[in-house]
Amino acid sequence: MPDTSESRHPFLEGLSKHRGSPPTVIVVFGASGDLTARKLIPAIYNLGYDNLLPADFYLVEFSRKSIPDDVFRSMAVDSINQFSRRELDGGVWQSIGERAFYQSGGYDDLEAFNQLRKRIEKIEKDLGRPVQSLFYISTPPSVFKPILENLGKSGLASRHLGEKEASKVIVEKPFGRDLESARVLNDVISRVFQEKQVFRIDHYLGKETVQDLLVQRFANSIFEPLWNRRYVECVQITVAEDLGVGSRGGYYEQSGATRDMIQNHTMQLLSLTAMEPPVSLDPESIRDEKVKLLKAIQPLKLGPEDGDVVRAQYGEGLIGGERVPGYLQEEGIDPESNTETYSALRLSINNWRWEGVPFYLRSGKRMGRRVSEIAIQLKCPPGNLFSASEKFDLAANTIAFQIQPDEGSTVLLNAKIPGLETRTQPVKMHFRYSTTFGSNTPEAYERLILDAMIGDSTLFIRGDETEASWNLISPLNDYWDSIGRRGMESYASGSWGPLESERLLWQNRHQWRRP
Ligand code: NDP
Ligand code: BG6
Questions:
Q1: 208 CB less than 6 Å from ligand 2?
Q2: Does residue 210 share a domain with residue 152?
Q3: What's the whole-model pTM score?
Q4: Helix, strand or coil for residue 49?
């Protein structure tokens, strides 16, 4: 008999559980932005395609720019054509588009929020039923606070409290810009919403391969005996992008690679890789282990020579054979900007499992290619039966989880080259999602929007988790802010980051992988 408590769990259940959500209106704040166009609209479209939206579904897009409904709808069609994993199906879009509206207003303008409430009340009146409101805050973090406060003051946050149509809020990352602002946000949230209404999103947790990390680690016995300081030499986590800052200067200049990617996505990958086994798969047990792990990370050494951190900005270079400008030449970027587009950290974890094992994290824009992976490099075997020489080409055994693209995992081993002589060569054992399961799996945002609609918080971040992560990162950002552009390295677009980032590893006789 299946265990019914577990079969209700999102890690174990398919998307079909979401059928039957109450009538819902999703309100997106920051709707004229990059995230809405590239991810949110395509995700909502694909949910509609899979028949996973409630029968009565409405979309209200909200931002400061003034955009007529019909222009917004044709922008939505463009974004589906450009970014959806599936081609546009006119019928599917029509059923969403005819109930999609645009409202312009300031994020600190209470009257605009009162208008929004009236619009939702009108939807309910026409429908003759209550609807749940899911507010999606997709703006730069500097305006999270006024939006949350106005959701409270306008009464939008407390609509249908205690019922299945209760309002919910998804808050994008980075959650604040430092430890202090994260605490302020957690405080505002706790005054305006009940915790079960709140979904702090990190879309990496919605990626299939990130969820698979828990399965790989805890549903197999092959890894656990190796997963500790006795066998692991170092861990490298890379989240590299070939994209530049594009049209997102307004957000990115306030953020930079460390706040944009390291504080959230790479720290989540690190927590899931290094945490202890949770006692069960329920949301709180997993989050408890992640928080314990984050708290065991030692403060970063900050300083120019033997510090644990390196930052850099991309210069001009070639991406896919095309010449691209450097960060300081991009539209909307201050030519004197000290915002980093690349960040690398060396972390130490002070616990029984990981003491002495360096964890290297790096993330950058305009790098050699788009790739995210977690690589566990094992120690070399003892003795010198096969010591590296011309005959013995040897590599350290490495278990690598490819988060994207080309999702899967690889084990790097040394093998004998067939022949009369004993010569060796590193070889790879591969597991590829696309080969085993086929391609076209749901995008992270599809999964996460659905989970929020039904109120399942497993794949979202808890308040103390985000504070534990900021506790590590904030001193670093403060340090960089205090020294201006001093020590800012540069790397050519299309390369693998600045030379200085090799120093972090050379000091321990390690080298970055070329994923
Ligand atoms: P954008 O820079 O595109 O900004 C989104 C919208 O917010 C803009 O269209 C603008 O709307 C408004 N805005 C921009 N700058 C400011 C400002 N200084 N003050 C007030 N409003 C402003 O950002 P993204 O859409 O890329 O990102 C939004 C959020 O989503 C961020 O928190 C980001 O971390 C997160 N995110 C983004 C991803 C992506 O791929 N883009 C992926 C994952 C998360 P208007 O002026 O019309 O009000
Ligand atoms: C977002 C960042 O959180 O993640 C963006 O704000 C980045 O700067 C994006 O481009 C990357 O997401 P993905 O899913 O393409 O790796």
A1: no
A2: no
A3: 0.93
A4: helix
